[in-house]
Design goal:
The protein has 229 residues and is mainly alpha-helical. It folds into 2 domains: 2-65, no CATH class; 75-227, no CATH class. The protein is built from 12 helices and no strands. The chain has helices at residues 2-27, 34-49, 53-65, 67-73, 75-80, 82-87, 89-113, 118-124, 131-141, 145-169, 175-197, 199-227. The longest helix has 29 residues, at 199-227. The chain is globular and about 50 Å long. The N and C termini lie far apart (53 Å).
């Protein structure tokens, strides 16, 4: 029975993603984000069938394990676009570093204006990097790792939905610029959306995600205290 539930949850996950991805590719609208839509489908099916998080956990763990190989696979579009990266190395590096600093500052300033506590602000600061790094930064700075993980997921979801809309609204059409923006602000989920826009945008998203994660991990111990109350 356990194996049957595992198989059903796995089929549900893969099937819902493929279906919503097809919808996205058909209409090309950011609000039809595959991660967002497939999440809604999975939740709806579990609710309708009486499934629980514990039932879905084994399938989730397998999907999480596959994140590693999926991240490594980003090296392929990067290799195909290596000439672009090398020719624009300095602007790429400057853009990602500036974007990383700006996204941390923006959320902490907004949080302070909203009256959030120091603990929540610390947990919120590293929201734009991948979960393992963000959680460790939060823990070392005195934040709540679980809360940070939730903020990271929410940031990726919101950024991957609204990011393309905002970039289009301000007439950013260059795939390099779009990929860098999505990867810097929305880490893996932003990179996934950038890949749907094209290989070049996806490659730049992967570069931005990696550089932003390393840079944030190095700078956070010194940068966060400057912005916290």
């Amino acid at each position: 029975m356990t194996a049957l539930i595992f198989a059903a949850c796995l089929i549900l996950t893969v099937g819902s993603y493929l279906a919503t991805r097809a919808i996205f590719l058909r209409f090309r609208h950011p609000l039809l984000n595959p991660v967002f839509l497939s999440t809604l489908v999975i939740i709806a099916v579990l609710q309708a069938t009486g499934g629980t998080l514990a039932d879905y956990q084994p399938a989730k763990e397998l999907m999480t394990f596959l994140l590693g190989p999926a991240t490594v696979a980003l090296a392929l579009p990067l290799y195909h676009n290596r000439a672009v990266l090398l020719s624009q190395a300095l602007p790429v590096l400057a853009g990602v570093l500036t974007g990383s600093l700006a996204t941390i500052a923006a959320v902490l300033v907004a949080g302070r204006l909203a009256g959030l506590s120091r603990g929540i602000l610390v947990s919120l600061g590293p929201k734009s990097v991948t979960v393992p790094i963000a959680v460790e930064i939060s823990r070392l700075a005195g934040g709540e790792p679980t809360l940070t993980a939730a903020f990271v997921v929410a940031t990726g979801m919101i950024g991957s939905i609204l990011g393309p809309l905002l970039l289009t609204a301000v007439r950013v059409k260059d795939p390099v610029a779009r990929g860098l923006a999505l990867g810097t602000v929305s880490h893996g989920q932003g990179t996934a959306v950038a890949l749907l826009e094209g290989e070049r945008a996806g490659a730049m998203g992967g570069v931005a995600m990696a550089i932003a994660a390393v840079f944030t991990a190095l700078i956070a111990p010194y940068y966060l205290p400057l912005l916290l109350p």
